[in-house]
Amino acid sequence: MQLSRRITGLTAGGSDGWDVYYRAKDMLAAGEPVIQLTIGEHDIGTDRKIIDAMHAAALEGHVGYSMFNGNLNLREAVAARVATRTGVPTTPENVLVVPGGQAGLFAAHHAACDEGDTALYIDPYYATYPGTIRGVGARAQPVFARPDRNFQPDPAEIAAVAPGAKSLLINTPNNPSGVIYTRETMEGIAGACQDHDLWLISDEVYESMIWQGEHISPRTLPGMAERTLVVGSMSKSHAMTGSRIGWIVGPEEAIEHLGNLSTHTTYGVAGFVQEAATFALGMGEAFETEVSDPFRRRRDLVIDMLEGQTAVRAIPADGGMFVMLDVRATGLSGEEFADRLLTEHLVGVMPGESFGQAAAGHIRVALTVDDDRLAGAIGLLIELATELAA
């Protein structure tokens, strides 16, 4: 039987670029002491109080069908959080609950694009972005954010390819680079979207992890609330990666239609998970700071360790769970360097090439192990880079 081109073409016929990650996992399973700095998984796990709230909700009967667009108490909590943090009036009618940020990205592109439409995204990108766009039948077209601009997108380059496109996907704080888009960048992006009638899909799952600078949600910019779909999630802010709970915030009409999409796809999110998410949001910003503080500390640790050498350069890590490192001075590609680092020193990192062409010659380091193991891994990384650069 013939499978659809849409499903067989999600990764454009190649690998997804995560070969080093898969090899590191296999080595760990075989008992080798690999330090895994590949994926953005918290090392603390979900807080016991949130798990207890989920358990209690299940025992209380929140195990049947939930509201397909999200239970009202959770949508109210999300709307209040967004309104408080952005200053943009937001009601439950602006919120759709989805099973995680990835489902939100998929649904948002369904809202913005018809079959065959062009959907733009910034390169470097989180690994699923092109496949998500292809999955809705649209044509995925990258716009390169270049290393010489510290991976800040150039609005002029967006505008140059925008004619005829339907949407633009951005992510700030950015995964993989750790860069936060500046106000100048965001205003330029907003201008390009307005000039060329683009939907802006804004992935803001790292908005609680800001180390320096200012996070600007595009809904706050003049004329953008009616053309912006913001994707949020509990995964990073509350260490609830496995719970699969997130949201889309956007114009009421779009959210209403996206609710219809949920009816025909996910049919809602488990009620006990929604109750746990509502409880978790009620723990306030202090709890989110508790979750994020280790990543701030480890980011500073890595930056300090890189001082005084020239073989590795850090891209400004303004936010998020990662530091991106420029290893081009070694003469190797990011993929080659990551492969050598894993083979020779048992340290697993992601090659920049896993996240697009713009990040070639770079590697992404996840700050997801304890400080001592991270320091040991970075020491080995610097040792290898210095040896190669010499």
Structural commentary:
- By secondary structure, the chain is α/β, with parallel strands linked by helices.
- It folds into two domains: 5-45 and 286-389, Alpha-Beta Complex (Aspartate Aminotransferase, domain 1), CATH 3.90.1150.10; 48-283, Type I PLP-dependent aspartate aminotransferase-like (Major domain) (Aspartate Aminotransferase, domain 2), CATH 3.40.640.
- The model has no long low-confidence stretch (mean pLDDT 96).
- It is globular and about 60 Å long.
- The protein is built from 13 helices and twelve strands.
- Strands 2-8-7-6-5-3-4 form a seven-stranded mixed beta sheet, with helices on both faces. It has a five-stranded mixed beta sheet with strand order 1-11-12-10-9.
- The protein has helices at 5-8, 19-29, 48-59, 72-86, 101-112, 129-135, 155-161, 183-195, 252-264, 271-281, 284-306, 334-345, 371-389, and strands spanning 35-37, 95-98, 118-123, 139-144, 165-171, 199-203, 228-233, 246-249, 313-314, 322-326, 347-351, 362-366.
- It starts with a helix and ends with a helix.
- Helices cover 41% and strands 15% of the residues.
